[in-house]
Amino acid sequence: MEQSLTVNYKIRNLVTIVRVHGEVDLATTPAFRDALDAGSARSLIVDLTDCPYLGTSGLAVLIRACNKLEGALSVLAPEGSFHRKLLGIAGVDGMLPVFSSEDDASHWLLGSQYGAS
After folding, report:
1. What pTM was estimated for this model as a whole?
2. Over the Cα atoms of the chain, what is R_g?
3. CB 32 within 8 A of CB 24
4. Quick one: which of 46, 65, 73, 117 could link to 36 by a disulfide (CB 3.0–4.6 Å)?
């Protein structure tokens, strides 16, 4: 069975929101990487709400994107989700801040970039 991954973009308050639909595994990681590299975003929220699975290759893409954006990346995932557990187990939850709401993620990114409170 072929895996499909779709990504939608939205810009809100100077932040690009990347909504991921579908599994990010070894087969779909190149498309995920290309989606995060597209455009000239200075800050990203990666919304994993509709992503049922994120493999270690997808996690590596998130870390790479975070480094490229000098930390201006946050993850949107529901409380208690697989993604939150994965980031915690991998020990990168401090590097990749995870939020439950788009507003909280956006506020954090704008505050970290522009000193807003």
Report:
1. 0.89
2. 13
3. yes
4. 65
